[in-house]
Fold this sequence. Notes:
- This protein is mainly alpha-helical.
- Helix content is 53%, strand content 5%.
- The protein contains 28 helices and eleven strands.
- The chain has a three-stranded antiparallel β-sheet with strand order 9-10-11, with no helix packed on it. Strands 1-4 form a two-stranded parallel ribbon. A two-stranded antiparallel sheet has the order 2-3.
- The radius of gyration is 32 Å and the shape is elongated.
- The two termini are 41 Å apart.
Amino acid sequence: MASRYVNYNPYKTHQKMKIRSFFLYIALICLALPLTAQSIWNRSHLEQVKASVTAPAYAASYEALTQEADKLLDVHPLSVMMKEKAPASGNKHDYMSQARYYWPDPSRPDGRPYVERDGLSNPELEKLDRVRLGQTADRVITLSLAWYFSGEEKYADKATELLRVWFLNTDTRMNPHLTYAQVAPGHNNDQGRCYGVLDAYSFVEMLDAVQLLEDSKSFTSSDARQLKAWFGKLLDWILTSEQGIDEGRQANNHSTAYDAQVIAYALYTGKKEVATRVLNEFPEKRIFTQIEPDGRQPHELRRTLAFGYSQYNLRHMIDIFEMGHKIGVSIENSVSTDGRSFYKAMDFLAQYMSKEVSDWPYKQISDWDGKQQEFAQDLYRTWLFSPDRKDYLCIYRENRRIHREDRFYLLYFQPTVVDHAFAFADVQLRLAMKSTEQAQKEYTGNKRLVAPRCIEKDGSLRLIGARDWCSEFFPGSLWHMYAYSNENTWREQAVTYTWPLEEVKWHRGTHDLGFMVYCSFGKAYELTGEQSYRDVVMQAARTLRTRYNDQVKAIRSWDFNRQVWQYPVIIDNMLNLELLFRATEISGDSAFYHIAVNHANTTLKHHFRDDYSSYHVVDYDTLTGEVRLKGTHQGHADDSFWSRGQAWGMYGYTLCYRFTRDPAYLRQAEAITDFFYGLPDMPTDQVPYWDMKDPHIPHAPRDASAAAIFASGLYELSTYVTGEKAIRYRELADTLVENLSNDYQTAPGTHYGFLLLHSTGHHPGGDEIDAPIVYADYYYLEALSRKERLARK
Length: 793
C-alpha cells in the first residue's frame, strides 16, 4: 500500500530530465532560426506547446484543431476562378470583392450606384472572392498547425494543395494584386477601392502557418520560392499602386492594417529594410495620429461598431509589435509629447470590460459580448510582451470566458498549474454529471439522490440525498468552475445541482447547514448576487441558530449516541460558522455574529491541547456548560492527531479572523499550522496520513482531503500575516496544490469524474478509506481559485 505514496518516481524524474533537455535543445534551435522565422506567432512558445500538446490546458484545443483538419482533408480547393462573374478587367484571375456595407439604392431601378449602410453587411459579397480568400487562408492555417503539432503529413499535403491552387497553379491562381477589391457597384468605373487592401489581411497569419509548413515533406522548396515571389509582387503592388498608396494614407484602422501587411509580406520575402522602415515610422504615423491623449480613437468611435473597431485597430497594433520584436524593433512603449500611446488606448477600452453595452458612451449595434472576449485576448497578448502590466492579466482572467476549443490556447496561452488543473476538472466534472445522471436512472430505491459523494469499495458510485452533509460539495465545485471560467454552461449546471438542496434550509437536525448551504447557495449568492440565493442562505442561518445553546455557548453537532454524549461539539463545526457570519453581513442582524463568536471562543478554550492539536469531539453538560469528556469519533484515538480535524481547525479560525479581525483567532490558525506541519512523521510531499498517530505509518492511508483543506486555508492565512511567515504559508500551500495536481489526480475520463484519489473519510468506521471523496475535490478547486487570485496581486 505504501508504494502508492512514494514521493520519488524514477520514471517521472527521467521524464523531467528529458523535458529539460528537450527545452534546451529547442532554445538552441531557436537561436539558429532566421530572424523572420515567424511574424505574429512565437516559435519558442509553439515548440513548448508541441512538447505537451495533450496536457489539460491544450488538449481540447488540439483535439478541436485535428478534428477540423480532418474535415478539410476532402474539401475541394478554392480558387478565384470560381466567382460567378469577372471583374471589369474581364480576367477571372483578378481578385474581386464587393464593399461590405454597400447596398443597392432602392430608389433606382438597377440599384446603381450602391449606397452605404454602415455596420450592415451585404450578402452579395459572398458570391465573389472575399469569402473564399478567407476560407483558404483559414484552412491553410488549420492544416498547417495540425501538421505541426501532430506530425501527420496528410495535413501538410492538403495545405500545400490549397496553396498551389490559390496562388501557384497557372489555371487557377490569383493574380498578385487587389485592383478590384471592395468594388462599390456603380462607383469608380467598378474598380476597387483603397480599402480593398484590407481583404488580404488573412494572409498575415497564414504566412506564419506557411513558415511552419516549410519543414514538411509536402511543401517543397520550389513551392516556397514561388510563393515568396508571389507575395513579393503583391507587396510591390501595395507599395506602388494608387489604391495601396491611398490606403496607407488612411487615418483609421485601415492604415494600421496596411502597415501590418507591408511588414508581414516584407519579412516573408526577405525585405527586412522595408519592414524596419515601416516599424520605425509607425508610432509617429499611426499611434500618435489615431489615439488621443485620453486613449480614445476618434476615427473608430464614429462608427456604429465603435468598440469593435477600436479593438480591431489595437489588435493590428499588437500584431505589428510582435512582428517588430522578431527583428529587434520595439515600439510599443512609444509615447508622444502630449501623452498619446498604445497603452492609453488599451486602458480606455479596458475600463468598459465587464460592463453592459448601455454603459458604452458610443455606438455598438451588435456583438458587444463577442468583442469584449476578443479584447480580453488582446489584453492577454499585450501582457505577454509587457509583463509589468499585470492589470491586463487580471482583467483578462476576470472577464474571459473559457472555450477550450479556441485556438488561442495553442497559439498564445501560457497555462499555470491552476489552468491545467481547471482544464482537467473541466473534463472530469462533465463526466461526473453524466455518471450521476446515469446512476440516478439506474437507482431503484425511494430516496431522492441529488449528488455524488464517493466511490464505494466495490467500485460503484455512491449518490446521496439532499440531507447528507456532503450534498453541497458537488454543486459547490460547479460554482468554482463557473467562477474560474465565466462560462454560462457551468453556471447553468451549478444551478441545476444547487436548487434540489433548497429543502435543507429548514433542516434542524444537523449542524452542517453551513456546509450544506453556504458551499452551494452561498457561493451562488457571492457570484450572482441573486435574491433567491440570499433568501435560502438567511433561512438556513436562522435554522442553524436553533441548535445553539447559550449555556454551553456553542452549536450542538450530532444528535445520535445520546447514551454517550449529552451535547457533542466537533471541530468540523468551525466551518459552519461562515454561514452565520455572512448572515450578519447580509442582513445586519448581529445575533448570528455573536453566536458564531461564542462558538469559536468555546471551541478555542476546550478543543485544543497545549501543543495546539485538536480533539475531534468535546461533550458538554447542558445545565452547567462544563466539559464532560474529550475524545474522537473519526480519529485513531482520543489523543491522536486526526488530520482532517486539524485542517478544519486551522481553516475555521482563519475564516473567523476574516470576519472579526480578532488576533486570538489568527494566532490559533498559525499555531495549528505550525504544530501540524512540524510533526516529524509528515510525508515529504506534505499530504498527511489520515491520522498522524496511526501506528501503521508510513503504511497508513493518506488523506488528500485534509491536504486540500489545508491548502485552501493556508492561501487565505498567508494574506493575514507578514514577512517570512506569509511566504512560508503560501509556499506550503503551493507545495500541496502542486503535489495534489501531480501525484493525486485521477486519470482523465476515469473514476466517475472525481478529481483526487487517496482521501480518507471515516477510517474507524471502515468507510471511504483511500477513496475519491467529493469534499476533497471541492477544497482542491477552492485552493486553486485562491492561488490564482493571489497570483493576480
